[in-house]
Specification:
single chain, 641 residues, alpha/beta, 14-stranded mixed β-sheet, five-stranded antiparallel β-sheet, 13 helices, 26 strands, 19% helix, disordered N terminus
C-alpha cells in the first residue's frame, strides 16, 4: 500500500487549494547514502527583506546544483559480446520499489539467449525515486563504457520503474528506440510529446497497487495524437504482470525491430490472448527460469541541474538590529495549499509573531512538492536552504523543518538527504516514504502528529527507536485523521520544544547500527506451526523452505515472540487471486497506544512489515484467500531491536 500512496502523490497535478484556519488544539495524547548538494552559483532574483517585516513576503531564487549520482548497477553481456566490432542493442531496466534486482530479474535466461542484447539495470540508491536527469547521466556513462548501438536503446521498468520509463520517454523523446512501461502510469497531457515514440504498455486489469485507469487515459490520449502505441492488459492479473510480458517472444521481436527516429515497426504480431496463469513465478517478479548471470558494478556520475522557485519569508521583530544569528523554520505546505493561506505564514498574517525566521516554499511552476523523494524536489529545497543561509542571518545549528500531509512526508525525505542541516523535524499527518533511510537521521529529534492512529508513522518510529533515538514524540488527535495539522500548529509547547533543539555534532565514530535486542535468532518459515498448511522444501527466490497451503488456503498458527520491534518479509512463489493472500497478526499491541489484540492485516506480496510486541507472548498468524497449492516464500520474522 505504501507504493500506492507514493504513486498517487506522484500523479496528482498542482492545484490551488485553500487550507482551513488552524484551530486551537484539542486534548491530545502525547507519548513521548546521502545525496549531497553543492551550490555553484550565487545568482538571486530578489534582494533581502528589510528588518521588521511583519508579514510574509515573496522572494525568488535561481541556483545551480551539482551532486554525485552513484550506486550499483547490474550488467548482462551477450555471449558473443566483444568477439567482433559490433554495436549491440541495450535494454535499460528500471526496477520497482524495493530494490528487487538483488533477488533476480523477471527476464528469463533462455529468452535473452534467443534474443541477445545488453541488459543494464541500475540499482537505485535510497532515498530516491527514478530521476530523469540522473538516468540521462547514467545512460551517458553506459554508452561511453560499452558497445551500445545508440539507435537501439529500449527503456523499460516495472511498477515504480514503469513510472520511470514513462518519465524517461517524456524527458528524452528522441533518445529511445522503444519504451515499455509495466505497471506504471503517466499524465495524459504529455501524450503529444511522445506520440512518435514506439511504445508498448503493460498493465494488470485487477491492479490494486497502481490502478489501470492512468494507463488507459494515457493510451487514449496517445492514440488521439496519432500514436501507434500497443496496450496489453492482463485481465485477471494484479500488479505483477512483468513475468508474463517477459515470457512473450513477440515482446523481444518487437523491441529489437525498433530503431530510434524510425516509424514504429508494426508487422510483429501482438499476442491477442495474453496468458495470466501459465507462468510460474514468485510474486516479486523474479523469473522461475535460471537467473541471468549478472555482474554487479559501480556507477559514478556528477549531475548538474538548475533549480529555481519562489518562497515566502518572514523576519521576526528585531531582526537586523543586532548582530544576531536567528533560528529558521522551513514550513512545507500540503499539496495545493498556498503558502500565504497555510500554516505559519497564515498565522503571521493573522497577527501571530514568532521568534524565528519562517521560510515557506511555493509549488514550482512545472513541478510538485507532493513527492519530495524525487531528486529534483530534494535538490530544489536544498538550493532554497542554501539561498536562505546566504541571504539572511541564520543560526546554522538551529534550522528546523515542519510540514503537513505531503509536506510532512517531505520532512523525512529532506532529513534523509541533508541529515547534518537540521536540528529537529516536525511531520504532521504525512507519513514517510519507504525510501527514507533512518540511519541517516537516526538521532534527530522528531515530533510526529497524526489522527488517532500512529500509522503511517509506525514503521519509521519503530526503526528509529531501534537505533536508540529517545527524542521522538507522537501526538494523536482523535477523529482528526490527516487534518491533524489544524491542531498541531497551535500545540502550546511545539515551538518551545523545537527551539530547544540544536544540531547534533557530526559523529566521531562509525555510523549508528541497529542491534537487535529481541529474539537471538531470526524465525524462518519452518519455525511456524500452521494448521491447514505445511512447510515443504522448495527452491525459491531466497532458497530454503516455503509454506504450501491446502484446501481453501486458510491457515493459522502461533509464534512466541519476545518484546521488541519486528520485521516480516514474505513473497508469494506462485500466482493466486488478484487480491493476494491475506495476512493477519493478532495479539500484539500497537507501539504508541495500548490496544489488546490489535490486528495487522495486509495483502501479500509485501516487501517489509514492521510491528511491535510490548510483552513476551504468543502472536497469532492467520492466512486466508490463498488457493490450494499456493507457495509462500521468505516468511521471516526478524527482530529489529
Amino acid at each position: 500500500m505504501i507504493v500506492l500512496v507514493v504513486v498517487l502523490l506522484w500523479i496528482v497535478p498542482c492545484a490551488m487549494l485553500r487550507a482551513e484556519d488552524p484551530q486551537p488544539a484539542a486534548s491530545t495524547n502525547t507519548i513521548a547514502s546521502t545525496n549531497s548538494a553543492t551550490d555553484t552559483s550565487n545568482q538571486t532574483a530578489s534582494a533581502p527583506l528589510a528588518a521588521d517585516s511583519t508579514a510574509p513576503q515573496v522572494q525568488t531564487f535561481h541556483r545551480e546544483i551539482t551532486r554525485k549520482f552513484t550506486g550499483d548497477y547490474f550488467l548482462y553481456l551477450p555471449t558473443d559480446y566483444g568477439k567482433q566490432n559490433v554495436k549491440w542493442p541495450v535494454v535499460l531496466y528500471l526496477h520497482g520499489h524495493g530494490n528487487w534486482i538483488k533477488y533476480g530479474l523477471p527476464i528469463p535466461k533462455h529468452m535473452v539467449e534467443k534474443y541477445p542484447f545488453i541488459l543494464i539495470a541500475p540499482q537505485l540508491p535510497y532515498p530516491a525515486w527514478w530521476d530523469t536527469d540522473d538516468l540521462g547521466a547514467f545512460l551517458d556513462e553506459m554508452e561511453e563504457e560499452y558497445a551500445i548501438d545508440p539507435d537501439r536503446v529500449c527503456v523499460t521498468g516495472i511498477s515504480m520503474g514503469g513510472f520511470g520509463a514513462w518519465a524517461m520517454a517524456v524527458a528524452y523523446p528522441d533518445r529511445f528506440a522503444s519504451v515499455m512501461p509495466m505497471g506504471g502510469s503517466e499524465i495524459p497531457s504529455f501524450a503529444d510529446s511522445i506520440a512518435k515514440v514506439p511504445l508498448w504498455v503493460f498493465h494488470g486489469g485487477k491492479d490494486q497497487a497502481v490502478g489501470i485507469g492512468g494507463d488507459i487515459a494515457m493510451v487514449k490520449a496517445l492514440k488521439e495524437q496519432g500514436s501507434n502505441v500497443r496496450f496489453t492488459i492482463y485481465p485477471n492479473s494484479g500488479h505483477f504482470v512483468w513475468p508474463q510480458a517477459w515470457n512473450t517472444p513477440e515482446v523481444y521481436e518487437w523491441m529489437l525491430a525498433q530503431r530510434r527516429g524510425g516509424p514504429p515497426v508494426k508487422d510483429v504480431p501482438e499476442p491477442l490472448v495474453p496468458s495470466d496463469s501459465s507462468i510460474v513465478f514468485p510474486s516479486n517478479g523474479v523469473a522461475a527460469d535460471p537467473l541471468l548471470p549478472l555482474q554487479t558494478l559501480k556507477y559514478d556520475r556528477s549531475v548538474t541541474r538548475k533549480v529555481e522557485g519562489s518562497y515566502y519569508v518572514y523576519l521576526p521583530t528585531g531582526y537586523g538590529k543586532q548582530n544576531v544569528k536567528w533560528p529558521v523554520v522551513l514550513d512545507i505546505p500540503p499539496h495545493g495549499a498556498s503558502a500565504t493561506d497555510y500554516g505559519l505564514p497564515k498565522m503571521v498574517a493573522a497577527g501571530k509573531q514568532f521568534p524565528f525566521i519562517i521560510v515557506s516554499p511555493v509549488c514550482p511552476w512545472d513541478k510538485e512538492f507532493n513527492n519530495l523523494n524525487t531528486t529534483y524536489m530534494v535538490d530544489t529545497l536544498g538550493g532554497l536552504l542554501d539561498e536562505v543561509a546566504e541571504k539572511y542571518s541564520v543560526d546554522p545549528d538551529r534550522v528546523y523543518v515542519i510540514g503537513a500531509k505531503e509536506g510532512g512526508s517531505a520532512t523525512t525525505a529532506l532529513a534523509t538527504n541533508f541529515p547534518d542541516r537540521f536540528a529537529a523535524i516536525v511531520s504532521i499527518g504525512g507519513g514517510s516514504f519507504t525510501g527514507d533511510r533512518p540511519t541517516n537521521f537516526a538521532q534527530l529529534p522528531i515530533w510526529f502528529f497524526n489522527g488517532d492512529s500512529p500509522r503511517p508513522y509506525e514503521d519509521l518510529i519503530i526503526e528509529l527507536r531501534g537505533y536508540g533515538n529517545d527524542n521522538i514524540r507522537f501526538t494523536a488527535y482523535p477523529q482528526a485523521s490527516r487534518d491533524s495539522y489544524l491542531q498541531a500548529y497551535n500545540t502550546p509547547d511545539l515551538f518551545d520544544w523545537l527551539l530547544k533543539q540544536k544540531r547534533l555534532p557530526p559523529p566521531t565514530s562509525a555510523p549508528v547500527t541497529n542491534t537487535p535486542k529481541g529474539l537471538p535468532v531470526t524465525l524462518e518459515a519452518e519455525d511456524l506451526t500452521l494448521t491447514n498448511a505445511e512447510v515443504v522444501p522448495q527452491e525459491g527466490a531466497s532458497g530454503g523452505k516455503v509454506v504450501k497451503f491446502s484446501d481453501d488456503g486458510a491457515a493459522e498458527g502461533k509464534v512466541h515472540l519476545a518484546p521488541g520491534g519486528y520485521e516480516i518479509e514474505g513473497w508469494l512463489l506462485t500466482p493466486t487471486t488478484a487480491d493476494g493472500v491475506k495476512l493477519e497478526i493478532e495479539g500484539h499491541r500497537t507501539m504508541l497506544q495500548t490496544r489488546e489484540a490489535q490486528k495487522l492485516s495486509v495483502s501479500v506480496p509485501w516487501q517489509t512489515i514492521h510491528f511491535l510486541v510490548t510483552e513476551e507472548h504468543d502472536v497469532t498468524v492467520k492466512f486466508s484467500n490463498a488457493k490450494a497449492g499456493v507457495l509462500l516464500d521468505r516468511l521471516v520474522f526478524k527482530p529489529l531491536y
